[in-house]
Amino acid sequence: MERIAEQPLFGGAISCSLPTRFQTVSNIREVPDNQEVFADASRDESVIVELLELKPEIPDEQSASWFLQDLASEQDALMEMESVSQLQPGDVPFLDPSIVKGVAVGKLKVSKSRQSADAANIVRIYMANLRLRSVKTDVLISVYEPLYISALSESAASVGSGFAVPAAVAGCSSALEVFQTILRTLKVHDWALFVN
After folding, report:
1. Sign of CA dihedral 12, 13, 19, 22
2. How far is the C-alpha of 194 from the C-alpha of 90, rounded, in Å?
3. Looking at the predicted structure, is the pLDDT value of residue 34 above 80?
4. Fewest CB within a 10 Å sphere: which of 65, 90, 104, 127?
5. Is the pTM of this model over 0.90?
6. Are the C-beta atoms of 146 and 112 separated by less than 8 Å?
7. Comparing C-alpha atoms, which of 64, 65, 66, 33 is closest to residue 50?
């Protein structure tokens, strides 16, 4: 069984639980102050928790899909939207039930950092948008699951090319299970984080 541990975010102001195979990326490279980034290099999977200034002009029921489409256009990625839904209060039990919690799932064809289009991988992204209107913040939680790695991608050196090994075969939680665990365990300990 995979080991899962509570992970402090933003200096402990927020926490959630993650499989211990995900390591913080800030030890390797610089990460913006408004993000917490974790990666499992052996599977090329990553988790990003991001705090953004609330975009009040985006309708609540479209917010998660809007942020996912925005991410795709930022990365010059081709995207196929797979599903858009709203979470139930029980899915994020430690947040006020009245907070709007949208989810969008999409498949992106995208190249790593500065690589050319012919090195594009196919990645599924699970994205939740938690709209903390009282503190004017949009929280984005994204879990990246590679489905297919191009032989030309820089990821191929560490994880190999071709179709990704399914989580069940690798003996670990699936990206969807990781995503659900984060949401189920997400807690805000210090609301002063959002004041500055």
Report:
1. negative
2. 24
3. yes
4. 90
5. yes
6. no
7. 33
Say whether 124 sits in a helix, a strand or coil: strand
Across 16-25, 26-35, 147-156, 164-173, the highest mean pLDDT is recorded for 16-25
- Alpha-carbon span 196 to 192, nearest angstrom: 8
| Coil/strand/helix, residue 13 | coil
State how far the alpha carbon of 116 is from the alpha carbons of 8, 161, 169, in Å. 35, 16, 31
Q: Which of 136, 194, 175 is nearest to 2 (CA)?
A: 175
How many helices (H) and strands (E) the chain has is answered by: 4, 11
Written as one letter, the residue type at 12 is: G
Q: Residue 19: beta bridge partners?
A: 4
State phi, psi for 161 to the nearest 5 degrees: -105, 170
- In this structure, the number of other CB atoms found within 10 A of the CB of residue 122 comes to 19
Give the pLDDT score at 113.
Answer: 64
Q: Mind listing the pLDDT tens digit for each residue in 77-103?
A: 889 999 999 999 899 999 999 899 999
Residue 73 burial (CB < 10 Å; 0-12/13-18/19+)? exposed
- Dist CA 9 CA 25 (whole Å): 12
Per the structure block, which two tokens stand in for 156? 């191929």
Query: 60 is written with which tokens?
Result: 């609540």
At 161 the three-state DSSP class reads coil
